[in-house]
């Protein structure tokens, strides 16, 4: 490994305060990612085959966000945040302005609601044919 | 008070190699704000990792973008190799470094040509791309592909370059260096070029760092960040320093890319001289299990890979944060205050690669 992989776990109500602490230490935001935990256990492939009512496919799931920061020495630290689908999370764009772009992307692709984004594209950053496409299990074909 | 109008820029525009849309908020001829809109070439490639075997996924990763192709494949392979604790042979690391620097050269020459075209210097654009053709010929001679190399795999590389070929490449690069210097002298010294680039799209050091700028956009504002200094591949064995300019304007960013072309030539020659003998790949068995972050320096800047594997042949999550995505907020910082005629030049100085941005 070329760099240390450092992770800290935070809760929703600690996120903004922790981001402020990290900013004070001279770090900047590198990226925010989201993933669905245990996606295959939540949706059967048969349900995914039915494309008629797409809203039904967005069932509550556990999601994990990873916020990555670096300083001028290229040291990388990551914050892990576990949420449940439907929970709203606060934006860190008040601390790290570039966060608005990642938060809008996560909203459009995963359906996560982020409160207080510096710039809110209202779901129009990515124009996708289905809502929250990354929040769906892969289709049963070709696996 | 000046009346505000909104002028759409893109998604189709002569200066844009790929589609991005900006709503430019104008007061007369001056830009006061810009609102980006992306998603025209979103392909859901990260989601595809859940359906494709982790070995097949290399072919997808190197097709995230044509210009940045090799380093995408390298970053993906590196991340998987770290998770699986695979020790890549030293010769393979040097070969990866050589191809990565060729990739950087052809990307920067492509960009220099597009920049010349953006301010109307078409002859200079053609000269840049003429030289780039020779770089692509060298790449094709060693990998079989001009743009999508297909030479990286988990555990090493697929092809070798023998000593004779390496010598020929080094000799050709010496000839190319002379030709490149003729065109870069125009960028550096021509009066009209300087008029179009100096003092335009200024991004201060603090703004560049705070808005998340990466690559030449960041180094053009005086921040000496280059992920190659982490020492991945064979970079730990090579001698180089990040190329930095202080002015933070379009000219500074152009100079950074220009000087990086020469740096790439030097790095390839160093790697060709130091490359050890040995195997080019190790056998890979099993499936990955674990998570890893890898960061590499693409021609446009820092690329971030996150892979989460769950002991099956399909990855649970594959995340790529590309440099152009990180450079969009700095772009929105550069635009206010400029005139409409300077917008294409400023947009081009972040070297937008929208295929990478949207994946």
Primary descriptors:
heterodimer, A: 143 residues, alpha/beta, 4-stranded mixed beta sheet, 4 helices, 27% strand, globular, B: 359 residues, alpha+beta, 3-stranded antiparallel beta sheet
What's the layout of helices and strands?
The complex is a heterodimer of chains A (143) and B (359).
Chain A lengths: L5 E5 L4 H10 L3 E9 L2 H4 L2 H5 L12 E9 L5 E9 L3 E3 L8 H12 L2 E3 L28
Chain B lengths: L3 E6 L11 E7 L2 E8 L7 H4 L8 H5 L7 H15 L6 H29 L3 H22 L8 E2 L2 E2 L5 H27 L1 H7 L7 H6 L5 H4 L30 H25 L14 E10 L2 E10 L4 E7 L1 H12 L8 H7 L4 H5 L1
Antiparallel strand pairs in B: 1-2, 2-3, 4-5, 6-7, 7-8
Describe this structure in words.
The complex is a heterodimer of chains A (143) and B (359). Chain A is α/β, with parallel strands linked by helices and 143 residues long. Chain A has 4 helices and 6 strands. Chain A has helices at 15-24, 39-42, 45-49, 99-110, and strands at 6-10, 28-36, 62-70, 76-84, 88-90, 113-115. In chain A, the strands form 2 sheets. Chain A has a 4-stranded mixed beta sheet with strand order 1-4-3-2, covered by helices on one side. The longest helix of chain A is centred in the last third of the chain and has 12 residues, at 99-110. Chain A is globular and about 40 Å long. Chain B is an alpha+beta fold and 359 residues long. Chain B contains 13 helices and 8 strands. In chain B, strand 2 and strand 3 (30-37) form a beta hairpin. In chain B, helix 4 packs antiparallel against helix 5 (122-143), helix 4 runs antiparallel to helix 12 (343-349) and helix 6 (163-189) runs antiparallel to helix 10 (250-274). The N and C termini of chain B lie far apart (42 Å). Chains A and B meet through strand 2 of A and strand 6, strand 7, strand 8 and helix 11 of B.
């Amino acid at each position: 490994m070329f760099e240390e992989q450092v992770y800290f776990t935070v809760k929703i109500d600690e996120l903004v305060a922790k981001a402020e602490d990290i900013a004070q230490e001279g770090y900047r935001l590198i990226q925010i990612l989201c993933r669905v935990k245990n996606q295959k256990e939540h949706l059967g492939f048969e349900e995914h085959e039915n494309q008629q009512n797409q809203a039904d496919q967005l069932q509550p799931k556990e999601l994990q966000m990873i916020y990555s920061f670096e300083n001028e020495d290229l040291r990388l630290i990551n914050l892990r945040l576990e949420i449940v689908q439907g929970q709203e999370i606060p934006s860190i764009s008040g601390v790290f302005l570039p966060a608005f772009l990642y938060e809008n992307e996560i909203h459009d692709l995963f359906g996560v609601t982020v409160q207080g984004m510096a710039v809110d594209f209202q779901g129009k950053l990515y124009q996708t044919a289905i809502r929250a496409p990354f929040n769906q299990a892969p289709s049963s074909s070709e696996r | 008070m000046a009346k505000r109008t909104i002028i759409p820029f893109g998604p189709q525009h002569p200066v844009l190699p790929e589609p991005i849309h900006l709503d430019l908020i104008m007061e007369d001829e001056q830009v006061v704000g810009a609102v980006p809109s992306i998603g025209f070439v979103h392909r859901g490639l990260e989601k595809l990792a859940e359906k494709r075997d982790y070995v097949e996924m290399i072919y997808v990763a190197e097709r995230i973008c044509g210009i940045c192709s090799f380093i995408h494949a390298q970053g993906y392979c590196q991340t998987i190799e770290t998770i699986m604790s695979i020790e890549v042979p030293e010769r393979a690391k040097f070969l990866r470094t050589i191809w990565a620097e060729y990739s950087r050269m052809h990307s920067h020459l492509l960009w220099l040509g597009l920049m010349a075209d953006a301010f109307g210097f078409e002859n200079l654009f053609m000269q840049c791309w003429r030289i780039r053709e020779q770089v692509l010929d060298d790449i094709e001679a060693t990998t079989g592909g001009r743009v999508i190399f297909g030479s990286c795999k988990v555990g090493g590389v697929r092809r070798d370059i023998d000593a004779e070929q390496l010598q020929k490449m080094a000799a050709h690069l010496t000839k190319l260096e002379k030709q490149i210097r003729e065109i870069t002298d125009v960028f550096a010294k021509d009066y009209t070029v300087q008029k179009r680039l100096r003092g335009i799209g200024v991004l201060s050091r603090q703004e560049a760092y705070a808005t998340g700028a990466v690559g030449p956009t960041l180094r053009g504002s005086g921040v000496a960040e280059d992920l190659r200094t982490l020492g991945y591949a064979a970079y730990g064995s090579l001698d180089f320093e990040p190329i930095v300019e202080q002015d933070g304007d379009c000219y500074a960013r152009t100079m950074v890319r220009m000087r990086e072309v020469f740096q790439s030539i030097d790095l390839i020659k160093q790697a060709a001289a130091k490359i050890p003998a040995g195997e080019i790949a190790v056998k890979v068995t099993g499936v990955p299990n674990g998570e890893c972050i890898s960061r590499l320096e693409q021609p446009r800047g820092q690329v971030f890979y996150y892979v989460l594997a769950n002991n099956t042949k399909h990855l649970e999550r594959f995340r790529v944060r590309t440099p152009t995505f990180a450079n969009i907020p700095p772009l929105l910082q550069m635009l206010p205050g400029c005139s409409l005629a300077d917008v294409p030049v400023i947009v081009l100085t972040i070297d937008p690669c929208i295929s990478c941005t949207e994946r």
